[in-house]
Design brief:
By secondary structure, the chain is α/β, with parallel strands linked by helices. The protein has one domain (35-57, 75-226): Rossmann fold, CATH 3.40.50. It has 7 helices and 10 strands. The chain has helices spanning 47-54, 77-87, 103-108, 118-131, 147-159, 177-194, 205-208; strands spanning 3-16, 19-32, 36-40, 62-67, 70-71, 88-91, 165-169, 197-201, 213-218, 221-226. A 6-stranded mixed β-sheet has the order 6-7-8-3-9-10. It has a 4-stranded antiparallel β-sheet with strand order 2-1-4-5, covered by helices on one side. α6 links the parallel β7 (165-169) and β8. α4 packs across α5 (147-159). The chain is globular and about 50 Å long. The relative contact order is 0.19.
Length: 227
């Protein structure tokens, strides 16, 4: 398998007034196509920052991030936004669904930025909702769904553009045990059946055990631990 994500000598720090606050220190990481990796570590260790850098939400202070052959650390803000929309699917802890939109409309949102026709958008949305097992909830609003179902809608929205990489930040953190298990099973399926490369931040050892590899972050340093 080819390496789809290559992180080289990555540093990230933030400034508070005149004080530099280091977050990530000389991170080097390779992720192969079709791999499922979990990032773990205590609060403040830098795991979400690393996820944001890999997905192009944030930019490094120093170093290089190559994703599918593109050095995203050198892209302009507008180029980076365009790149994200076609390459990355985002799954968050709190779903980020729009309450006044149906499941269909929430999933369709990323497609409104594309050149797809209305009929093509409908085909993509229905396919995504069927993959996550919610084809029969297409006209339901978020308030009519359980937490697990809301997260499934969020995952459908993340995959509707057929991104090459899924990034998930604590995707089971707001769910009960049964719903969390169902979401993890779905993510495993997306990885195995659809060959989605997944980078997941989690504090849950059970969730991390579903990954091919676990990487621990401690005070901005990366430590390897194979599953």
């Amino acid at each position: 398998m080819t390496e789809i994500i290559q992180v080289r000598n990555l540093y990230k720090s933030y400034w508070r007034d005149s004080i530099e606050i280091p977050v990530l220190n000389n991170i080097n990481l390779n992720i192969k196509e079709g791999e499922f990796i979990a990032l773990m570590g205590p609060s403040g260790s830098g795991k979400t920052t690393l996820l944001n850098l890999i997905s192009g939400i944030d930019k490094p202070s120093r170093g290089e991030i190559s994703v599918n052959g593109t050095d995203i650390s050198k892209l302009s803000e507008s180029a980076l936004a365009k790149w994200r929309s076609s390459n990355i699917g985002f799954v968050f802890q709190f779903y980020n669904l729009i309450p006044v939109l149906t499941a269909y409309e929430n999933v369709e949102l990323p497609l409104l930025l594309t050149k797809l026709t209305k009929a093509e958008r409908r085909q993509h949305v229905e396919t995504a909702l069927n993959i996550v097992g919610l084809g029969d909830r297409i006209d339901h609003y978020p308030k009519q769904l359980s937490g697990g179902q809301e997260q499934r809608v969020a995952i459908a929205r993340a995959i509707v553009t057929d991104p090459i990489i899924l990034v998930a930040d604590e995707p089971t953190g707001d769910l009960d045990k049964n719903s969390a298990s169902e979401i993890l099973t779905l993510m495993e399926r997306l990885n195995k059946e659809f060959n989605k490369t997944i980078v997941m931040v989690t504090h849950d050892p059970h969730a991390a055990s579903k990954a091919h590899m676990i990487r621990h972050l401690e005070k901005g340093d990366l430590i390897l631990e194979a599953v």
